[in-house]
Amino acid sequence: MIDVGNKQIQRWSAIALLVAAILIVSLVVIVPVVNKGLDLHEVKNNLVFKLEQYERVLARKDAVIENMRAIQEQYQKSGLLNKQSTGALASAELQEFIKKTIVEAGGQLSSTQALPVTIKNEFSRITVSVRMTGNSQVLRAVLYKIETSTPLIIINQIEIRPIRGIRSRMTQQIELSNELDINFQAVSFMRKQPE
User: Fold this and answer.
1) What is the mean pLDDT of residues 44-71?
2) Which of 7, 13, 97, 119 is the most interior residue, by most CB within 10 Å?
3) Which CATH number is 87-191's, of 1.10.275.10, 3.30.980.40, 3.40.50.11810, 3.30.70.60?
């Protein structure tokens, strides 16, 4: 009887060892493999999601390119850029426009000076330094005409100072003057010319 009980214990021990070995093998081999498989499945799902996003973007590519062409055409037709062939010609045209604008508004042009053309990205910046005199109505008319002109002209670094009045010979008092001394820069843009 003891033999049968011993055999029974040995069987149960063997079964317990087999189960323990299976558990150890599954913990050491199978669980990491399953975890790695789950991680790879998640990575695959993320890549599939990104791929679908890229496909949606690519599907809209033609529409975006067409919109860009339409915007470029509209931009070209708007006439915001100076169309002269060189910076010197653009500067001369800008100076002539400013001179005409100041005279038409009733002001006096003291001087204009073309500053060096600066290039940034695809554009050349044409800058003219202007000095003029006139009253506040003249200044308003000049600024309005310049800012609403085509091609686009931007007023930059404006400086306005009142002109001191003239001393009266009779009363020896300074008579007030509505005249202003005005300095500003007018900036226009043109496409960078190929070198």
Assistant:
1) 87
2) 97
3) 3.30.70.60
